[in-house]
């Protein structure tokens, strides 16, 4: 994947460049100190991933992404955590806080490579016990173990938990890529379930917490193979 770095700090650019160059699936094709310089690069060559600082002179990283008609995958890099909600709204692949360690960088890269079909080195890390969902203007931490099932509603999702139901703005495919495959399974175009909380399966119906959920024909074989 072709990558560019946009950061006004030379040392920060050098660090991320060294990380990129150490991974065979990534190729650095440009390193820029401003969004203005990067804009030309985005229109002169294919770019798959942009490692983008947020606080920069001139146009900042958030506004730069908003200005692009076609944007590659974005990993925001910043010294502050206050932009997390803005980054989430732009569907950033990840949000890294400086100083960025190589281990944390690898986790961000995995989120990009897995959906693209690349072989990756790590599964979701053991310490990741949940996921943050944007609900209204807040990021709500929801433990994986508490999620019963997820229902797709176009660009929105309903996440049913043992305590309450959350409505969040995200596509089904995006959320599926963030969930651990050892716990969750997709059983329908618009349904993901927590396989640890299945009560029973009868015909083409799965019962979870007293709710019957249909199994789509497209997903039936892969689902049954997984739980067996």
Number of strands: 15
**CA distance, first residue to last residue:** 36 Å
CATH class of the largest domain: Alpha Beta
Class per helix and strand makeup: alpha/beta
Helix content: 25-40%
Query: Which CATH architecture of the largest domain is right?
Result: 3-Layer(aba) Sandwich
Q: Going across the biggest sheet, name each strand in turn.
A: 2-1-3-4-5
Task: Please provide a written account of the structure.
With 228 residues, the chain is an alpha/beta fold. It has seven helices and 15 strands. It folds into two domains: 112 residues, Response regulator (Rossmann fold, 3-Layer(aba) Sandwich), CATH 3.40.50.2300; 88 residues, Beta Barrel (OB fold (Dihydrolipoamide Acetyltransferase, E2P)). It has a five-stranded parallel sheet with strand order 2-1-3-4-5, with helices on both faces. Strands 10-9-8-12-11 form a five-stranded antiparallel sheet. Strand 8 and strand 9 form a beta hairpin. The radius of gyration is 19 Å and the shape is elongated.
Features:
228 residues, OB fold (Dihydrolipoamide Acetyltransferase, E2P), 2 domains, five-stranded parallel sheet, five-stranded antiparallel sheet, 34% strand, elongated
